[in-house]
Amino acid sequence: MTQESYSLMRGGLVHRLLHASGALRGRRLSWWLASTLVALSLLPMLLLTHAAGMLWPRPHAMALLGDYATLARLLLALPLLILAAPRADALLRNALRQLSHASLVPPHRQPRLQALLSRVRRCRDSWWPELACIVVALAPLYVHGGVVSLLPGIPDWRLQGDTLTPAGQWSAWVGMPLFRLVALLWLWRFVLWAMLLWRLPSVGLVLHAEHPDRTGGLAFLGLAQERFSVLAAAGGLLLAGACLNQITYLGETLYGLRHLLAGYVVGVTLLLVAPLLLLAPSLIRARRHALSRFDALGNRAANVFEERWQAASEVTAGAESLLDHNDASAYADFSGVYQGVVAMSVIPVTRWNLLWIALPAALPLLPLVLLAMSVDELVAKLFGMLV
Fold first, then answer.
1. Whole-number mean pLDDT of the chain?
2. Please, how many CA atoms are within 13 Å of residue 193, restricted to the half-sphere of its CB?
3. Residues 230 and 88 sit within 8 Å (Cβ to Cβ)
4. What global pTM score does this model have?
5. Are 282 and 201 in contact (CB under 8 A)?
């Protein structure tokens, strides 16, 4: 099977349009696409706001270069989503390939797995989901008429009275729909991955509770789930930009936003690992059955070990002891395997997986801390915590 057969990204309406345009034959497609979309969405707004005198920051009004929410969305989050797609697709593709080639699915159930992968590919290649993404990306234009007010009571570069400025019209009709479309395409891939995990137990997985990864051999799915941390990072950039606007123009404090920021990091981390919960019933059954088997085996091993230990302790001095044989070592090895089964996780996610999803969500919020307090205050607080 080709690489596209295991890909979640290389398919659908947008991919076909890029293929028809010849863009897919070029090198560094993601860099070219990211640069093009950023230039298309941002450069006209820079020129139009410069002509209107609303480009550079000014007191009591929000100019374009002082609109941190828009800059974070179009200058940082948009290229991030595009540039992260090839790497994420490569790792997700490897995870799908591992499902096919590992011993998780017995040979007589391989047709079920291939049917599931085919169903996912058909959903990926369908025009309708991405066409729906395009409609949703443009929907706010028809629901709200394209008129927006980022900060009530603060004049901004988008509006002149109750009407959109030329720069505001470009933002409403080009910049914002482009960003929403890219974000929705990522969310659609996330839904495809969740659909795959939802149907995967019906294939008939053979899970080994004694597997060294302590997740029944599914630890690679937790690693694959980390690839969606780019959504957490993009959301963190949007939140950081909106909070910077609130702090700069409305006098909001970081202390007042603490619950929002902490809730975002915790909430988006749990949301992104939630699809792995669909595998919990299979892992619970594998763990329960393994404990039942190992309990019976452990009773027999303990009885044999105790009998030989007692027999060895009754022999005369100078005779071979139990430690001269491999019984003690084998029993210790069995105890280690049993403890591994007891410690087996019923969700294929580790603390490191959680960290590498939460960290991209939290990192974009760090500039808020630097804005809320001076460097001297930050160093003093850190020094006080350490000392």
1. 84
2. 29
3. yes
4. 0.86
5. yes
